[in-house]
């Protein structure tokens, strides 16, 4: 009897099992590879401030960061990437992954954490309501500061010094990235072959919050609405992972 | 690779002359363009491009691989140079501060180190160990090696921007003296990448070094 693996992550909303990109990546990959994991949301616990999310706990050891967690799952023989490596151009998934990190992540961080309207009306209330008192004052602010400094340090090189100048650049790069992904996906259900792989999990993790969240102001979301195949891709994967996750607390198990 | 005449000039204040603060930059007529991306676009606007023969799918693939190289190799190079204490103390700081006199050299070197460490912190590389960084570089090289296969260039017969970018990074890693040879060894274990670097060095740099000095190349390091 295999010991259960427990995943600590942010809880779900807006029709998603989790609102957090990294947690979504791990949840999607676990479903693709057939691993059974218990989801333990860190909402309303002190882990919202102290914990690194997502975190996989198995037999006493903890692993953080999606890439490490996916490696660990592969070592435990939960591998969704067989078909990927059989394809002649399968190695490009590294490149696409790098593209997501470089081009799409800054714009997503900006949309959710730096854009004043979205932050005030959606992100901060959500995270504040999911953190215990008095952390609800600290947690959203800390994430917003991290996001801003990350964008400025990686993209805000001279002559672009302020966030407004960087905005234009990161949004145009993100739109290009989404177009490239849409082009690459075409009419298929998944990016490589007929079964989903780790890259599908990563793209899902990045794009799904943008697709599902009701953002008051988002040029990036409007751009995504023009790319039907990416939206179809997210919905399809959501249906695929529509299972009952057992929750570690008093919740009744939910399906999405 | 585009056969454009270029005069290379080394200046210690190059970073400050550049419009974006980054080297390299080209000075053409009364225009100054810095960094690979803008320079490629600039030459394309003037009618010289290496990737005209690629279709849309290949061009997207090329962009993805270029992003991979930038994301992995460049970050790993910065990490090893500035976040690893031994390398920073013995090699990077002395080298960076060599054109200046005391105390400016100390200040600038520490400032650069602080800047790079801050950036590593922001993207989450600060917690990585040297072993993990070497592992990441190895994975990146494996992806490149598999894509290159037995072809002369990444997109078959003609060199493209990707070839130039990969050559630049790999050549630098192979010819820069560091505290340990592990990084160079990792790359040498992929024989087709090593052959690729040698081939490009031979085709594009050997001739000009042997020939006229009017080209302006100084005798630099070599893989041979």
TrEMBL record, chain A:
GO cellular component, one term: SAM complex
Subcellular localization: Mitochondrion outer membrane
Domain Metaxin glutathione S-transferase: 174-237
UniProt KW keywords: Membrane, Mitochondrion, Mitochondrion outer membrane, Protein transport, Transport
The keyword Protein transport is assigned to this record: yes
Similarity-based family: Belongs to the metaxin family.
Protein name: Metaxin
Lineage summary: Eukaryota, Metazoa, Chordata, Craniata, Vertebrata
UniProtKB/TrEMBL annotation, chain B:
Domain spans labelled Mitochondrial outer membrane transport complex Sam37/metaxin N-terminal: 5-112
GO BP: mitochondrion organization; protein transport
GO cellular component term, pick one: SAM complex
Assembly information from the UniProt record: Interacts with MTX1/metaxin-1. Associates with the mitochondrial contact site and cristae organizing system (MICOS) complex, composed of at least MICOS10/MIC10, CHCHD3/MIC19, CHCHD6/MIC25, APOOL/MIC27, IMMT/MIC60, APOO/MIC23/MIC26 and QIL1/MIC13. This complex was also known under the names MINOS or MitOS complex. The MICOS complex associates with mitochondrial outer membrane proteins SAMM50, MTX1 and MTX2 (together described as components of the mitochondrial outer membrane sorting assembly machinery (SAM) complex) and DNAJC11, mitochondrial inner membrane protein TMEM11 and with HSPA9.
Compartments reported by the entry: Mitochondrion outer membrane
Protein name as annotated: Metaxin-2
Residue intervals of the Metaxin glutathione S-transferase domain: 138-200
Coarse class of the protein's main subcellular location: mitochondrion
Pfam family of the protein (one): GST_C_6
InterPro entries: Glutathione-S-Trfase_C_sf, Glutathione_S-Trfase, Metaxin_GST, Mito_Protein_Transport_Metaxin, Sam37/metaxin_N
CDD domains the record matches: GST_C_Metaxin2
Keywords: Acetylation, Membrane, Mitochondrion, Mitochondrion outer membrane, Protein transport, Transport
Function as written in the Swiss-Prot or TrEMBL entry: Involved in transport of proteins into the mitochondrion.
Family per record: Belongs to the metaxin family.
Xref: SUPFAM superfamilies: GST C-terminal domain-like
């Amino acid at each position: 009897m295999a010991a259960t693996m427990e995943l600590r992550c942010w809880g779900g909303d807006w029709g998603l099992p989790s609102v957090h990109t990294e947690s979504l990546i791990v949840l999607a990959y676990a479903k693709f590879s057939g691993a059974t994991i218990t989801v333990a949301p860190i909402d309303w616990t002190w882990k919202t401030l102290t914990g690194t999310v997502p975190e996989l706990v198995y037999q006493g050891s903890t692993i953080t960061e999606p890439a490490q967690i996916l490696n660990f799952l592969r070592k435990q023989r939960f591998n969704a990437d067989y078909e990927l490596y059989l394809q002649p151009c399968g190695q490009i998934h590294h490149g696409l992954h790098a593209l997501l990190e470089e081009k799409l992540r800054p714009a997503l961080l900006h949309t959710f954490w730096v854009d004043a309207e979205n932050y005030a009306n959606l992100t901060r209330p959500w995270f504040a309501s999911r953190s215990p008192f008095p952390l609800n004052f600290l947690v959203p602010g800390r994430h917003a500061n991290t996001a801003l400094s990350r964008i400025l340090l990686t993209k805000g090189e001279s002559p672009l010094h302020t966030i407004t100048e960087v905005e234009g650049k990161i949004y145009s790069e993100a739109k290009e990235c989404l177009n490239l992904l849409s082009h690459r996906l075409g009419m298929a259900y998944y990016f490589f072959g007929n079964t989903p792989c780790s890259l599908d999990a990563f793209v899902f993790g990045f794009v799904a919050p943008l697709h599902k969240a009701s953002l008051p102001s988002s040029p990036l979301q409007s751009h995504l609405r023009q790319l039907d195949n990416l939206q179809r891709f997210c919905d399809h994967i959501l249906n695929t992972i529509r299972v009952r996750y057992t929750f570690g607390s008093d919740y009744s198990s939910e399906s999405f | 690779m585009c056969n454009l005449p270029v005069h290379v000039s080394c200046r210690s204040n190059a970073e400050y002359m550049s419009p974006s603060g980054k080297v390299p930059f080209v000075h053409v007529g009364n225009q100054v363009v810095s960094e690979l991306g803008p320079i490629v676009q600039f030459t394309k606007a003037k009618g010289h491009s290496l990737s005209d023969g690629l279709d849309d799918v290949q061009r997207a693939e090329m962009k993805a691989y270029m992003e991979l190289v930038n994301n992995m190799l460049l970050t790993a190079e910065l990490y090893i140079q500035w976040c690893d204490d031994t390398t920073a103390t013995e090699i990077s700081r002395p080298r960076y501060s060599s054109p200046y006199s005391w105390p400016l050299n100390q200040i600038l070197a520490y400032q650069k180190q602080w800047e790079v460490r801050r950036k590593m912190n922001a993207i989450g590389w600060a917690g990585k160990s040297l072993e993990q960084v070497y592992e990441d570089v190895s994975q990146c090289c494996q992806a490149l090696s598999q894509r290159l296969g037995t072809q002369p260039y990444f997109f078959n017969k003609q060199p493209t921007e990707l070839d130039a970018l990969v050559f630049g990074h790999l050549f630098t890693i192979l010819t820069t003296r560091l505290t340990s040879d592990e990084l160079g060894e990792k790359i040498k274990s992929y024989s087709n990448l090593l052959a690729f670097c040698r081939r490009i060095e031979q085709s594009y740099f050997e001739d000009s070094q042997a020939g006229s000095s009017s080209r302006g190349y100084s005798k630099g390091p070599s893989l041979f």
